[in-house]
């Protein structure tokens, strides 16, 4: 069980709750969602509590995250996009902290479950659609008709645009989910090699240095991936939101 | 399943017991695709992410935004103040330079005036001294002239005395002083 690379993704019910035949139990996944939110909130809240004019390191980190996301959103969607700043910031921090927490041994990775990433992606695309129609009415549909396309090609282009729009929640969620899943499996498999090789006596122990080095290297890579995927998720969110704000391209 | 075959074989005997337990645990389904866990995950995601969003939106982001705004304002203010102070400094320098120039001009003028006054005074002094000297010269000349004329007068008397003495010596008697005086006077013309 300990060496099964899939075991780490199992959901364990901690407090069983069942409403209307559906299972709403408080699970290890729920616990880590709570932990993610609590850790991120506590950090952001406490690091800025002194409201220093000259920030200390932690406050600096919070401010840098704020400005990083703010610049990302402003670059992608303009000043009008800043109304979505709390949303994008929450998404970025939530995904980032969930990814990073998942890297600790024995910790559960919230974002390694497709349903979580898919729900977040649907939230993004849902926001785009709802805001797009609210702001532009049917003009939002211009999104699917790029300007300057010859009339004869319009049906084809519209088809492609619609398909690409519909694939957004899928690509957005699968990208994050698959990265987290694959990274954690690889890590676990290499770490498993270390244990299993070292049961083969001296040669095995000497040989287990290789997978150990690999495990260390992959851990570093996974930290990078954790940041990168949170960033990619947030950047794509910004670009999709830009479509809702400026559907005419 | 998702375990590599070699890996599974290697470990099958050692942990057969544990493995069956794990198999029973996820009932053959790959955990991320196990739909029975979806409602719970969705509910708790909605609760946690919703609360997180509200907390950030209501508390954290306004606070951080406020911190950054206050700092930007403060920096702008300080820059303004620096610019103002610089301007004041420039004005002070300009005023100082103007004052310096004025003072220089004034000192030049005073110097010039003093020089002129000194010159005029020296000139006046010189003139006075010259006039004085001229006066003294004239006095001396007059004195000399008077002395000379007196001497000349006395020459007559001396001549009378001398001629009287000579005549008395020559004649051995008394000479007529008045006649001698006439004679001397006629000689002198």
Helix content of chain A: 55-70%
The low-pLDDT segments of chain B are 1-27
Mean pLDDT of chain A: 90
- Strand order within the widest sheet of chain A? 1-4
Helix fraction bin of chain B: over 70%
| SSE pattern of chain B, N- to C-terminal | HHHH
Order of helices and strands of chain A: EEEEHHHHHHH
How would you sum up the global shape of chain B?
rod-shaped
Structural class of chain A: mainly alpha
What are its keywords?
heterodimer; A: 249 residues; mainly alpha; two-stranded antiparallel ribbon; 4% strand; globular; B: 189 residues; 4 helices; disordered N terminus
Could you walk me through the main structural features you see in this protein, from its secondary elements to its overall organization?
- The complex is a heterodimer of chains A (249) and B (189).
- In chain A, strands 1-4 form a two-stranded antiparallel ribbon. A two-stranded antiparallel ribbon of chain A has the order 2-3.
- Chain A has 249 residues and is mainly α.
- Helix content of chain A is 68%, strand content 4%.
- Chain A starts with 12 loop residues before the first strand and ends with a helix.
- Chain A has helices at 28-47, 57-77, 85-102, 114-136, 154-197, 201-207, 209-245, and strands at residues 13-15, 18-19, 22-23, 26-27.
- Chain B is an all-alpha fold and 189 residues long.
- The N and C termini of chain B lie far apart (176 Å).
- Residues 1-27 of chain B have low confidence and may be disordered.
- At the A-B interface, strand 3, strand 4, helix 1, helix 2 and helix 3 of A face helix 1, helix 2 and helix 3 of B.
């Amino acid at each position: 069980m300990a060496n099964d690379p899939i075991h780490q993704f199992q959901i364990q019910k901690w407090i069983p709750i069942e409403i209307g035949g559906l299972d709403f139990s408080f699970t290890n996944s729920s616990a880590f969602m709570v932990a993610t939110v609590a850790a991120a909130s506590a950090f952001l809240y406490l690091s800025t509590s002194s409201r220093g004019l000259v920030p200390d390191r932690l406050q600096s980190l919070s401010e840098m995250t704020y400005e990083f996301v703010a610049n990302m959103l402003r670059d992608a969607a303009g000043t009008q996009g800043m109304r979505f700043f709390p949303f994008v910031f929450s998404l970025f921090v939530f995904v980032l902290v969930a990814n990073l927490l998942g890297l600790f041994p024995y910790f559960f990775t919230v974002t390694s479950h497709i349903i979580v990433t898919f729900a977040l992606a649907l939230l993004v695309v849902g926001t785009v659609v709802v805001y797009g129609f609210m702001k532009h009415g049917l003009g939002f549909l211009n999104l699917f008709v790029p300007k300057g396309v010859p009339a004869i090609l319009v049906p084809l282009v519209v088809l492609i645009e619609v398909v690409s729009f519909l694939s957004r929640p899928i690509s957005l969620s699968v990208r994050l989910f698959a990265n987290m899943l694959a990274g954690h499996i690889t890590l676990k498999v290499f770490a498993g090699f270390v244990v299993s090789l070292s049961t083969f006596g001296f040669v095995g122990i000497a040989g287990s240095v290789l997978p150990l080095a690999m495990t260390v290297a992959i851990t570093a890579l996974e930290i990078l991936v954790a940041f990168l995927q949170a960033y990619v998720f947030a950047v794509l969110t910004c670009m999709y939101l830009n479509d809702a704000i400026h559907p005419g391209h | 399943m998702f375990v590599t075959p070699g890996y599974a074989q290697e470990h099958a005997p050692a942990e057969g017991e544990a493995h069956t337990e794990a198999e029973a645990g996820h009932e053959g389904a790959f955990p991320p695709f196990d739909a029975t866990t979806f409602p719970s995950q969705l509910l708790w995601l909605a609760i946690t992410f919703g609360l997180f969003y509200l907390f950030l939106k209501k508390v954290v982001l306004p606070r951080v935004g406020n911190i950054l705004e206050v700092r930007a304002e403060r920096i702008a203010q300080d820059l303004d103040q620096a610019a103002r102070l610089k301007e004041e400094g420039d004005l002070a320098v300009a005023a100082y330079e103007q004052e310096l120039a004025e003072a220089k001009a004034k000192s030049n003028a005073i110097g010039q005036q003093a020089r002129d006054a000194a010159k005029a005074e020296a000139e006046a002094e010189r003139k006075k001294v010259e006039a004085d000297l001229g006066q003294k010269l004239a006095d001396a000349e007059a004195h000399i002239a008077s002395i000379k004329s007196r001497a000349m007068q006395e020459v007559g008397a001396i001549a009378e005395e001398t001629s009287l003495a000579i005549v008395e010596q020559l004649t051995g008697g008394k000479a007529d002083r008045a006649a001698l005086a006439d004679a001397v006077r006629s000689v002198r013309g």
